[in-house]
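Listing S7. Sequence submitted for prediction.
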Amino acid sequence: MLLASAAGLLALLGLVFLPIAVRVRLDTSRPTSRVSLDGGLWRGLCGLSACWQDGTWRLRLMLCQCSLRWPSWRLRAGGARPALSRPRASRQASPAARPGRPHRTAKPSAARLPIQRWRPLLALVRGALHSISLYRGSVQGRLGLGDPARTGWVYGLQELARPLLSRRIRLDLEPCFVASGFHGRAELVLHVHVHRLLWSLLAAAAALWRPRRMLRTDRAAADRQP
């Protein structure tokens, strides 16, 4: 029992403090293009992998950043059929019944809300963006734009920007003056830090709850006055 509790506590701490790894890969070097999206907990130790190829999505379990061959689920990319809706009978209130209805007051629009309510939400959006970090990015292959002049111009920009790129970003594109399109591989790995996201959520909740508490205190003090 004690070992199980310790293991559960370690797993919970790892879930909070170890980032969630999200990896997007594109492979166009094969005859059929392939796109995969992987997401794993505990820095990618275990998770779920989704691969799109030949118009079919295939879902697989992932362990130690490797997709397992079994079990796997296939989802075809065919669009879902729209649900048939029955025609609804038009409800027309009689003129005599209209005056008896209670008058509904218009709800305040989002533009009329005080700016104090928007600040915590904006802080939450900034905190969510700060909780995502770039771990690795790479692009390798051949790129052709159909026009040799444009292809050479883009290749020159790549050579100028390569010394300015971070060590985590690898850019290695070769110009192709004969054909157009991208033939190669691209990979992007992002880390989502759960503890930063939770801290942003707690800060936003506290900022939204504080004005309401102050308003209740002021109302209670005003009611106590004779």
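Caption to Listing S7: primary sequence and predicted structure tokens for the chain studied. Confidence is low (pLDDT under 50) at residues 79-87, 89-98, 105-113. The first strand starts at residue 20 and ends at 27.
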